[in-house]
């Protein structure tokens, strides 16, 4: 209301004085950042990776990682975390990734006879991926993790790291009722972000082909991105399903709570809108004069 706005303005004009400390909410208690957030039944580790203090960004392949699994099992959750020799509490370079050197890994599991399961992309700061109770993801016996698309960047100091991949399994005998999948909207080739300009918007669309329940939503925007929204359009109706902030120093998947997952009929149009700030007010952009678009730059 106008009255509330006037109170806030008067408070700001008077130097934003602190109120009664007794009215403060209890301080937040943060968990150990190196603790698992799932209960992994299987943990595998990559070979060590080292980046120098000023090495250029690197994209490429890492050695395959065998998974000690002797029978096919379905996965309830997967979590990937980077463990490196930068001490807890130490800061890295004040840019994307902080003290970490692995920005992302696009990966899959595969068997010697060519059977493949796809998995959500690992990105710096990512939380675990929890699959629907009725749509577990299959991890086949004898699988190994494979990736030809790992992106490394320097954090300002010589750093050696490994990736730990943890799988939490459904009980033996579990069978899914539904097929889970990853829906990607948009493509890098069509991205066109002008230099020295805030308030730019990018949109992409897809049409749902079969009855679909949405479990989670992950925005992906790179350095100029500030926010992404997901909308569903069908008939004469449009509804915002999720609208979340974005910071390229960390990537989050936002999971809908049980009984709040959107249920979409075939023919529904899904639309994402990315809000981009390629200006000097965005501290994640090294040089906002640059146009940004398709490619690693």
Helices and strands, with pairings:
Blueprint: H1 2-13, E1 42-45, E2 49-51, E3 58-66, E4 73-84, E5 102-110, E6 116-118, E7 122-123, E8 129-130, E9 137-139, E10 144-152, E11 159-169, E12 192-193, E13 197-207, E14 212-213, E15 216-217, E16 225-234, E17 237-245, E18 254-255, E19 263-264, E20 269-278, E21 292-293
Antiparallel strand pairs: 1-11, 2-11, 3-10, 4-8, 4-9, 4-11, 5-6, 5-7, 5-10, 12-21, 13-20, 14-19, 15-18, 16-17, 16-20
General description of the model:
The chain has 297 residues and is mainly β. Helices cover 4% and strands 40% of the residues. It contains one helix and 21 strands. The strands form six sheets. Strands 1, 2, 4, 8, 9 and 11 form a six-stranded antiparallel β-sheet that branches. Strands 3, 5, 6, 7 and 10 form a five-stranded antiparallel β-sheet that branches. The longest helix has 12 residues, at 2-13. The radius of gyration is 22 Å and the shape is globular. The termini are far apart. The relative contact order is 0.18. The model has no long low-confidence stretch (mean pLDDT 92).
Give the oligomeric state of the chains in this entry, treating copies of one chain as homo and distinct chains as hetero. single chain
* Low-pLDDT stretches: none
Strand count? 21
Question: The biggest beta sheet, please?
Answer: 6 strands, antiparallel
- Element order: H for helix, E for strand: HEEEEEEEEEEEEEEEEEEEEE
Strand content: 35-45%
What is the terminal separation in angstroms?
45 Å
Helix coverage percent of residues? Answer: under 10%
How would you describe the shape? globular
Give the radius of gyration. 22 Å
pLDDT averaged over residues: 92
What count of helical segments does DSSP give?
Answer: 1
The helix-and-strand class reads mainly beta
């Amino acid at each position: 209301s106008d009255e509330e706005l006037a109170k806030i303005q008067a408070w700001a004009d008077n130097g934003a004085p602190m109120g009664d400390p007794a009215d403060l909410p209890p301080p937040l208690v943060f968990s150990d950042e190196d603790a698992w957030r799932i209960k992994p039944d299987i943990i595998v580790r990559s070979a060590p990776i080292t980046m120098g203090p000023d090495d250029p960004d690197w994209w490429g392949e890492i050695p395959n990682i065998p998974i000690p699994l002797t029978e096919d099992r379905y996965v309830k959750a997967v979590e990937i975390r980077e463990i490196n020799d930068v001490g807890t509490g130490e800061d890295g370079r004040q840019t994307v990734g902080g003290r970490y050197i692995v920005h992302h890994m696009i990966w899959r599991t595969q068997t010697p006879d060519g059977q493949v399961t796809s998995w959500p992309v690992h990105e710096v700061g990512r939380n675990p991926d929890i699959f629907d109770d009725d749509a577990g993801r299959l991890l086949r016996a004898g699988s190994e993790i494979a990736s030809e698309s790992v992106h490394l960047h320097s954090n300002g100091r010589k750093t050696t790291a490994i990736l730990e991949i943890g799988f939490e399994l459904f009980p033996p005998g579990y069978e899914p009722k539904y097929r889970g999948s990853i829906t990607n909207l948009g493509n890098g080739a069509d991205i066109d972000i002008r230099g020295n300009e805030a308030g730019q918007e990018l949109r992409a669309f897809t049409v749902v082909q079969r009855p679909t329940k949405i479990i989670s939503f992950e925005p992906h925007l790179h350095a100029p991105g500030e926010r992404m929204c997901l909308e569903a359009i069908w008939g004469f109706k449009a509804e915002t399903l999720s609208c979340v902030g974005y910071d390229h120093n960390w990537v989050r998947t936002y999971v809908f709570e049980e009984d709040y997952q959107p249920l979409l009929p075939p023919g529904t149009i899904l639309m994402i809108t990315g809000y981009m700030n390629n200006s000097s007010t965005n501290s994640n952009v090294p040089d906002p004069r640059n146009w940004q678009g398709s490619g690693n730059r």
